[in-house]
Amino acid sequence: MADAGALAELPAVGEIEFADAAQLDAVLHQADRPFVVRGLVADWPLVRAGRRSAQEARDYLLAHRRDVPFTVSVGASGADGRLFYDEAMGMNFATVQSKLPEIFARLAAQEDAPDARPIYLASVDVKGFFTGLHEANHVDLGDRHPLASIWIGTRTRIAAHNDVPDNLACVAVGRRRFTLFPRQQFPNLYLGPIDNTPAGRAISMVDFHAPDFVAHPRFRDALEHGQVAELEAGDALYVPAMWWHHVEGLAPFNVLLNYWWRQSPRWLGQPQDALNHAILSIRDLPADQKQHWRDMFDHYVFDHDPAAFAHIPAPARSVLAPLTAESAGRLRAFLLRALGR
User: Where is the JmjC domain (predicted)?
Assistant: First the structure.
């Protein structure tokens, strides 16, 4: 049974206004839910070029490109822009490398075609693939050191997923729709494989344009907590770390720049790696042993009570003490040696 009406009734993400970069910085430090800032990047040269025409936006990007191959995903016509799995759980798109002028020429040739194949350049490092683009088009994020990425494509649909860092997504050209869910809604989004994904993160198997509530009945529960943000060129959306978001490019040509940053030190490991290793080493143990390791994780990780290591002399606590860049490096080296056996 397919019914998309429930998605159309989702409440809008709240909007904020602020006076300057310092106020935005303060809001970001306190935010625990998404918010929209209308016109945050309206003065960017790229935004102004895109308002004149999609071709002017492409010309602007071409003028700043480095002469290097870009990775681009090309989907099939008739897929409604959805970059997803095929019936065999491979990908329904091909990934190739090409120079940006060739990619843009192909995109322009089919821009107005009703059966256009989706073309998508995802998470391209702005500073690595363009010169001067970041300097002319960026948001002041204070003392953060974000990764700036650009996303370029036709009408596309990217399945709901989440990201470890916080995210400020700025629409530069075209229009975007984000459908968002809190972190804890992951059981109701029917996630696919964690080791076979379109872009490195597990994605929802629900088709948001035609949700099947027979196959995915708990998705109705997720919708009770969903929000939607409709963004025009110049608008920005803050997506907190680990919030689930389904992203649609709504115009024939769309460009988004986003900024990712972590509130934790860069030298900390990735939690997904710990989950993958736990699946490898703990999930299939006998129940009594699994319970023991659950208790151990609570003891050392989730509860992290200082009493757990108070009996060890302070200089000898090693990684049981609060981690530093040095002790994290030692632990990472220890893990690499163990995994290589």
Answer: 96-276
CB neighbourhood size of 203 (10 A): 25
Three-class SS state of 83:
strand
Cβ contact 84:75 at 8 Å: no
**Sign of CA pseudo-dihedral 86, 184, 139, 230:** positive
Show the domains of the chain with their CATH numbers: 5-261 (2.60.120.650), 271-339 (no CATH)
pLDDT of residue 7: 85
Residue with tokens 């700036």: 148
Residue pair 336/273 in contact by the 8 Å Cβ criterion = no
- Sites in the chain below the pLDDT cut of 70: 1-5
pLDDT score for 2: 47
- Tokens at residue 189, please? 């989004």
Predicted TM-score of the model (pTM): 0.94
Helix or strand holding residue 326 (H, E): helix 325-339
